[in-house]
Design brief:
The chain has 189 residues and is α+β, with helices and mostly antiparallel strands. It folds into 2 domains: 5-25 and 170-188, no CATH class; 31-158, no CATH class. 21% of the residues lie in helices and 44% in strands. It has a 9-stranded antiparallel β-sheet, with no helix packed on it. A hairpin with a 3-residue loop joins strand 6 and strand 7. It is elongated.
Length: 189
């Protein structure tokens, strides 16, 4: 069987082209940090016995960097899920959203809780604005009495794109080996 050189060239170009356009496992993950502040009304009058935030008030962006800068501004209003139950730890989809980003709470841990101070940390997933869902960490603090329910919240991720593990190079190698096999068959014919 004789394969015309033009057909062989087109076939080779197609195989090599498919190697370069194969889907890569690289991710466009969110990189950066964002902080908020606002008011929180708890389910009790004492931070020592609080188990949830019933209402958030006037929550705004205080700072942001990296990927958050293009979509948010200092002073932007933040939407918070209400109520937020932190004891026991309760996953909360959409715990906060601002500028097209949403944070889905996976877990929380009360690090310190007494009548004067509340510190909660945890993990979750930040998504939005065309980025891949990105694991993130967060912390929530509130103090009393001088803060009168004012809290601060920070969340962020230092995730980087995920390398494709050599899949593209392997696919290119297979394509080139296939071209060589076809070339040898044509030369032998």
């Amino acid at each position: 069987m004789k394969i015309p050189k033009l057909l062989l060239t087109i076939l080779a170009a197609g195989v090599v082209g498919s190697a370069f356009t194969a889907q890569q496992a690289q991710a466009d993950m969110i990189n950066g940090a964002i902080t908020f502040a606002g008011g929180a009304i708890f389910d009790t009058n004492s931070l020592a016995t609080a188990t949830r935030v019933d209402t958030f008030r006037d929550v705004t962006v205080m700072s942001r960097d990296n990927d958050f800068e293009a979509f948010t501004n200092v002073g932007d209003s933040v939407t918070m899920a209400e109520p937020w139950i932190f004891t026991p730890s309760t996953p909360t989809p959409g715990l906060w959203s601002v500028g097209g980003f949403t944070f889905d709470l996976a877990s929380s841990t009360v690090v310190l809780q007494n009548s004067d101070f509340l510190l909660i940390t945890g993990t979750g997933t930040i998504s939005g604005n065309g980025f891949d869902a990105t694991p993130g960490t967060w912390s929530f603090t509130s103090q009393t009495p001088s803060a009168n329910g004012v809290f601060s919240f920070s969340a962020g991720s230092d995730a980087q794109g995920v390398p494709d593990g050599g899949t593209t190079v392997a696919l290119l190698g297979v394509a080139l080996a296939g071209i060589e096999i076809i070339r040898r068959k044509v030369a032998a014919a």
